[in-house]
Amino acid sequence: MQVQKADVRVCSAACLSSWVGHDVVWRGDVEVLGTLVGDYMTRGVAVVGARNVSERGRVLTQKLVAGLVESGFGVISGCARGVDMEAHRKAMRLVEGETVTAAIIPAGLGMGFGKELNDGVSGNKAVLISPYPFEHPARRWTFAYRNKLIAQIAVAMLVVEVGVKSGTMQSAREMLRLGKPVFVMAVDPTSPTAEGMVQLVHEGGILVSSVKHVMKYLADVGFEIRRVSCGVTTGKTNHEVVQNVANGSDCVQNGIQAMKQNEQIAYRRDILSGLHGDFRRCMELLIEVGNIDLTSMSVKTGLGTSTLLQILSDLEMRGYIYQKMDIYYVSQN
Amino acid sequence: MLVKINSLAFKGVEAVPVQVEVDVAFRKIPQFSIVGLGDKAVYESRERVRAVINNLYPDLRTLYKVTVNLAPASLPKEGALYDLPIALAILAVQMGFEVPDDALFVGELSLDGALRTVRGVLLAVLLAIQTGKNEVFVPFELKLDAIWIAGVDIYPVRSVHDVVNHLSGKKRMQPVHRDVNKRPVFLDDLLDLDKYKSYLSLAQGDDNAVRIKGIRRVARRGVLAKPIVCQRQGSSEQSRSLLKDGIPYSVTSSEGVDGTKSTFVTDTRGSTRGCVVDSTVDSVKGSTAAISTYVDMAAVRGQEKAKRALEIAVAGGHNTLLVGPPGSGKSMLAKAMEGILPPLTLQQALEVAKIRSVSSQDSTQYLIDAIPPFMMPHHSVSNVGLLGGGSIPRPGYITMAHRGVLFLDEFPEFGRNVLEGMRQPMEDGSVMIVRSKEKNRFPARFMLLATSNPCPCGYLGDPNHKCTCSPSQIHRYQSRLSGPILDRIDLHVLVKPVPHDSLSAKIDPARRPVSSATMRANIIRARLRQMVRYTEATQQPTPDPAGVNMAMASLRSPDIVNGDVSDNAFLSKMNLRSSAEALLRQAMVKFDLSARAYFRILRVARTVADLEPTGSAFIEDRHVLEALQFRSNTVWGA
Q1: Is B266's pLDDT higher than 50?
Q2: Closest Cα partner for B137 from B95, B96, B172, B91?
């Protein structure tokens, strides 16, 4: 079943007060949708994923959504449990008075889907979009159609966790068929959703590990990366992030490495701020040289063996360092 | 006619009184029989005795029947030490002199009546003291005066004729002149802090400190005929020495890294025969220098962790394993460790001396000194050689190392059954050897120092060499040391090769490495603290300059080091701070430690606390933290 540039019905704040008769016809043109529900939706990015999402996936979703919204992208999703709902909620928390998220529901607007978003809809932060008449019931095929519609509307898609035979996979395939980018978040290879991830990457998805890679890609294909100040700040402007990644290399892998280094630096700064005196000196030395044995350490710090052993033991207990064959190394976070 | 003479037999490392009962009846047919479970050497005694009497006193009657009973008859006896009492008994009957009841006789006869030395002379002296005898007659030997212990007269017998003259009153013998001043300084003497202040003050920066007599060590080893006496007066120095084998030698002096002056005695072949280390300052009267063949800790470059580990190990008597690639300095460290061993207590010294006396026939058997034994058997040693054994059980290396150090170089190369055989002795501090004829319990309370390579090729973890072993080879090699054995080792230390540049680097004068003398003084203080803690108030040692009381008591000395003391005594007296306990619990989870490791770490932490310059009544967090660095998975893990 191909998604036509069909009529859809949008439930926005304006029509929520009286459900009946406010169906708006939209003919598949994002510009039009934008005029209807706000600027964000002209550049909506789909954030989709599994219903039974892991805790990591949940946190990841929130981070992704935050990154998207801060860069001026809207969030489109399917209003299902798990990743979808997490994406909607997070997006709504980030901005005030602008429609930032759209939920595509698999039934008529009057069937009770998307009730959880009612607050958002009345606060003008979210819209519900349905391709069906007002009281159309949900059926198996309406879900499938909904999934494809998401792909129609979104400019890009972020897949958080995906089963091989899931609706998310349908969305992603449609997306790929339409030639739009599908970003697949990397997961632990041992997790049950790894198979879906690999499948999707094989079919043309782009493997990413953070929203920064997504931004980089979108910037490359010509999207303007805006900077929107949100409730949550990351401390770095998106521009900087993009710049950092771009400077590192075009390759996503290098980007990952650069980012890890940044995280390491921050982590080590955190460690050092909690240490004082000789403990701090030893830790600074270790961070500087990476690994060291006790004798060299004694020479470089001028501390006695006994004292050094105590300090190293303490740092080891705190998990800052570890030792292997009598050489002390700085732990990774 | 019946004559009874006191002698002794050996049971394990103890002496038990034996009465040599001799019945002489004049008959037409000569006969000579010995009963009382003697071995071949005992039965051959009659041939020696008969020949001696014929040779010395040809005019005596020869037609007599002799029956010798060695009582108690059920105790197996061995050796030729009953020659003297048997001969004396026969002569006493024939010549009509009295053999005193308060005397004890041992000795092997030569056919001309001269006496040959036997093993266990010191045990005879101690037995005489214990059983209230006044005189001991033993074969003549120059070193007899090394038995400085008082309480009994020792008569050195050159010939059986001397004893006959002495007993019949023709010509009295003189007992060995012994000087109680030859008594070395024992650990329990040092409790008398005022008298031996200089002994202990070295680590506190008091320059008047002196080193403890190591002179006897060299003398005992036979390297030098005379101990080198080294006196410093201003800058001039006099050294006198003679090499025992008469090889010409040269003496070279050098300034040590810690400011000590060392004098090496080198023979013409270029090998070092001895070393005198003088302290930096004019010594206090009566003491001079330490002579040793061991390596000074200050001469060991790098290896700070290993040196600290050895200090802790010696202070608390902890079993230690050094693991490292070849050439990294494991054996050198072990030799250096010999130089930091603290003196024994008098009671321990007596135990050690008894073992030495019963197992050796040379002059060292007379020594009662404070230097702990340091035994290093080769790894081809047999089970019996290490643990003890024989049809009449004799002590093995673990018993010879009692109260001292058993150094097993190349630990995994020892036979599996040899190593596993050490499990129970290491736990109990003694070994029970059971054979068909006899069973004996030998003391074996030693500190184990072992070295090992990390893998068959030796270079695992060496930054300069590539290890060529396969993982399965490494696994097989490391699994030669079974878990139970490794579990009994308190300190595990990885010894890394020292980089060339730091070997040749000039030492910063402000940061001189710790010398053996300083370390030893620290250790002695730590040992004294442990001794005071673990000894009951009633058992506190009393001054015993002549050693008589101690010889009378003949008790097994209590364990007074953290590594050996019983669990009950340790747990009730360790004084663990609750914060340190919490820390250790946390560490158990973090480092995945076993329950046994938990208690091992506590003991090591207690020693670390005792090693602090002023001692620490409680085990604090810092002590536990330091002890944690010597846990086993720092070496074998990963």
Answers
A1: no
A2: B172
Domain ranges of chain A: 9-250, 274-330
pLDDT score for A52: 86
Opening angle at CA B238, ends B236 and B244, nearest 5: 160
pLDDT tens digits for range B333-361: 988 888 889 888 888 898 999 999 988 87
Residue B94 pLDDT greater than 60, yes or no: yes
Q: What pLDDT, on the 0 to 100 scale, is given for residue A11?
A: 56
- On chain A, the residues whose CB falls within 8 A of the CB of B498 are 295
- Is the separation of the CB atoms in B344 and B403 below 8 Å? yes
Q: Please check the confidence at residue A16 and state whether its pLDDT lies above 70.
A: no
Q: How far is CA B120 from the centre of its chain?
A: 16
Sheet order of strands, A291-293 included: A291-293, A327-330, A321-324
| Contacts with A314 from chain B: Cβ below 8 Å | 625
Q: Identify which of A57, A128, A54, A60 has the alpha carbon closest to the alpha carbon of residue A92.
A: A128
Residues from chain B that touch A293, judged by Cβ atoms under 8 A, are 496
B236, B227 contact by CB (below 8 A): no
Structural domains of chain B ordered from first start: 2-180 (3.30.230.10), 224-292 (no CATH), 296-500 (3.40.50.300), 566-631 (no CATH)
Whether the Cβ atoms of residue B64 and residue B24 lie closer than 8 Å to each other: yes
Whole-number Å distance between alpha carbons of B506 and B637: 35
Amino acid at B628: L
- Contact (CB<8Å) A298/B304: yes
Distance set, CA B67 to CA A128, B7, B34, B105 (Å): 124, 17, 6, 18
CA distance A191 to chain B (A): 26
The pLDDT of residue B228 is above 50: no
- CA atoms of B218 and B291, how far apart (whole Å): 7
Q: Cis bond leading into A131, ω under 30°?
A: no
CATH architecture of residue range(s) A274-330: Orthogonal Bundle (1.10)
CB neighbour class for A141 (10 Å; exposed up to 12, middle 13-18, buried from 19): exposed
Residues of A in contact with B629 (CB under 8 A): 309, 312-313
Quick one: how many helices (H) and strands (E) in chain A?
14, 11
Measure the CA–CA gap between B266 and B271, rounded to whole angstroms.
6
Domain A9-250 has CATH 3.80.30.20: no
Cβ-based interface (< 8 Å): residues of A facing B? 293-295, 298-299, 302, 305-306, 308-310, 312-314, 316-317, 319, 323-326
Decide if pLDDT at A231 tops 50. Answer: no
Q: How far apart are CA B625 and CA B80, in angstroms?
A: 58
Average pLDDT over residues B473-481: 87
Among A302, A314, A323, the residue with its CB nearest the CB of B634 is A323
